[in-house]
Amino acid sequence: MIRKTFAAILLLAAGASGCAESESTATDDPKACKGATYIWEHESSWIPIVLDEARTVSRGDELKIAGDPYRPWSSSLKTDQNVNAPDEILKALGRELDKPLANVGRSTKSEAMPMTTEFAGDKAQAVYFQGVERIDATFTLTCTGQDRPINGHIVTWNTRSNSFGTVDCLKPLSANPIEPLAKVAAATRCPKDSVLARETVAR
Asked: What is the pLDDT of residue 11?
């Protein structure tokens, strides 16, 4: 469940909220194999999961946020050998990062949030965005009694990272949220001749 915490008057400020989840932070010892030890390499990036089209709104208008999934993808785990309990590998990564991670097979479609709110600001060309912290990890798993280590790759996201907000294509960068997702929204959805799109490209 995601708490919807921003008011209409704050529409043009980015926000983030989320209910704590415990999908992959269990404290069980890894059971993917006996005596499992891991070597991890991982990186994170902010990825949009919703990017609405630009909507022109005036004071008092009702801004309907579609929340349609943008290029949806699913959490996945691949290994070069069979593993008895692959979910335990994802839990081990969650402990490594100290973050709750989306279970294998879960789609970013499940995170999309449609909303409707009254617009209380000046005239704007608003683009709603939503995104998550994507985690890409490769690993080497060594098991007691096995001659060859297991190698694999995980693609998932931090389930506490769901972030959302709105940019205004009519305003400059200095008057818009500065987070990476806001810049993606400006570059992808604002008209190319808009103030915000031109400044974003120039940067």
From this structure: 36
